[in-house]
Design goal:
This protein is an alpha+beta fold. The chain has six helices and 15 strands. The radius of gyration is 19 Å and the shape is globular.
Length: about 230
């Protein structure tokens, strides 16, 4: 019977609970993502509830749990965000910019990229670190991302807004690592001929990023920390 080797990548709370960021499995040829999930639930029963509400990607693309696996495939547990497939309109690479980085975000970089002589509206949105969560004091935040896949998913969302709205340019920078109170965690710049399109596109992007992009944040309180989706 032929066997295949599969890797599973873990992030955020799941990585902490299992104590590893990469798992290796040797399974029967023809096994599915669902089969790997079953093995993980048996091997790590403490994370069964997390696995049941997670989404899964195979080789950096969201996949159904029934997807059959091949030698060398890499599964990523996207915990606990939801995924989707978006249209892929044709846009010029010079009209959008995506970065995920540990360094502080410079808003001038975002504004400089999206500024355009044809724009009647240049909109900048900054997501910042607040000092509380439902009134509970927060000391700082820590962001973690599956960077390669996160960039791919953000690009899909940008293509979606170019299909939906009359947009000229888009720039998105998301920061990872430790962030102090008041610092910028994400900056989104959108330019358009008319203001309504940039408003709607910016809102669509931040809402969709929170739902589909594999980025997690950990809120650090005096007594400990808590992972949640962005």
């Amino acid at each position: 019977m032929m066997m295949i080797n599969i890797k599973v990548r873990l992030f955020a709370a799941l990585k902490e609970l299992i104590g590893k960021n990469l798992l290796d499995f040797t399974v029967k040829d023809g096994s599915s993502v669902k089969d790997i999930i079953s093995i993980m639930e048996t091997s790590y029963p403490d994370v069964k509830n997390i696995l049941q509400v997670s989404k899964y990607a195979v080789n950096q693309e969201y996949a159904d749990t029934g997807k059959k696996l091949s030698e060398g495939d890499e599964i990523t547990v996207i915990m606990p965000v939801s995924g989707g497939v978006f249209s892929s309109g044709s846009i010029n690479d010079a009209n959008f910019n995506v970065k995920i980085k540990a360094e502080r975000i410079d808003c001038n970089e975002v504004l400089g990229f999206v500024s355009d002589s044809s724009a009647g509206s240049v909109l900048l949105f900054n997501g910042t670190v607040r000092d509380n969560e439902d009134g509970k004091p927060v000391e700082y935040l820590y962001y973690e991302a599956y960077e390669e896949m996160a960039v791919k998913e953000i690009k899909k969302l940008i293509k979606e807004v170019f299909n939906k709205y009359n947009i000229l340019k888009v720039s998105i920078i998301h920061r990872i690592g430790k962030m102090e109170i008041g610092e910028i965690s994400i900056s989104i710049g959108v330019s358009s001929p008319h203001r309504e399109d940039s408003y709607l596109a910016s809102k669509f992007l931040i809402d969709a990023i929170k739902e589909t992009v594999p980025i997690w944040k950990k809120e650090i309180f005096e007594e400990g920390g808590k992972w949640k989706r962005i």
